[in-house]
Write a structure and sequence with these properties.
This protein has two domains: 139 residues, Jelly Rolls (Sandwich), CATH 2.60.120; 120 residues, Jelly Rolls (Sandwich). The protein is mainly beta and 336 residues long. The protein is globular. Strands 1-19-16-21-14-13-12 form a seven-stranded antiparallel β-sheet, with no helix packed on it. It has a six-stranded antiparallel β-sheet with strand order 2-3-10-5-8-11, with no helix packed on it.
Amino acid sequence: MSSSILKRIPLQMFWPTFDPFLFCAFHNDTYPKANASMGPDAPLNNRPLGQDFGGIDGWRMYHGKSIPGFPAHPHRGFETVTIVNKGFVDHADSIGAAGRYGEGDTQWMTAGEGVQHSEMFPLLNEEDVNPLELFQIWLNLPSKNKMVPPHFTMLWNEDTPVVKVADSEGLETQVKVVAGTFQNVDPSPCPPNSWAADSKNDVAIWLIDLPENGEWNLPAAVANLSRTLYFFEGEKVTLDGANASINEAFVLKSDSALVLRNQGKKARFLLLQGRPIGEHVEQHGPFVMNTRAELQQAFQDYQRTQFGGWPWPRHDQVHDKSKGRFAEYSAEQAKA
């Protein structure tokens, strides 16, 4: 194995991550055509509705009962970065923000002191299948920022830079830069209190498309970063000459370059990189704090305040079918 590769880990739905990252889920569902209510036009009576993660027929309802997705639930103390490659997500939250995003868009939400949100997957095509492919990445907040006000940011696909790098044969690898500068190309701004907002933390979130028979050199970064490469689509790829298997994570030495060679159909990777925060983490479900006392306080605060309550008519809130991609911000954030 290459000296650049420290460890190989097989992947399932929930991917291994390392400080400053807390969690990464890969949702890949081929939903059937939609019914008139933006749900799947298919029987649901064979599914454990409310807890459907089994992948029956190639798709899941997750916690949804008529529309797939994740109805209203709380968070505190970290950020969610949701990258939607295919399909759409309807967002609604307790601070009054809402949106529909997808087809390459990213939503970056700082939960901070506490927010409820729902993430539903409206099916909009009533004539054909409705594929959904997304990553949800949890990025920790340092203790000084765990109780900042919630913040909701949209990184629209058309504003997210894609850098094309040609190899010696003229084949182009595409690097989509969600976070972290690549070849002097800066991403769209992330929320102001994010660990990624300080360039000294070297946070990078890149989507890498390696063409058939293409070659690309992942450049070295500085030492002592967490750096993990996830191989989630493709066939025959080598990393520094070593065969890589689909659905594997590769923990990398951050100050070493890595040569990716593709000998099959287009290969796709996610790269997560960042300087570790290096603080003790106490996590229970949707809350991530530094001490048990802070975690207990998070539950007490949520029981008392509901983090602002729920201003929407449904806990599985979806927006009008005719709406395209949009974002509406809370009154306080709109003023800022």
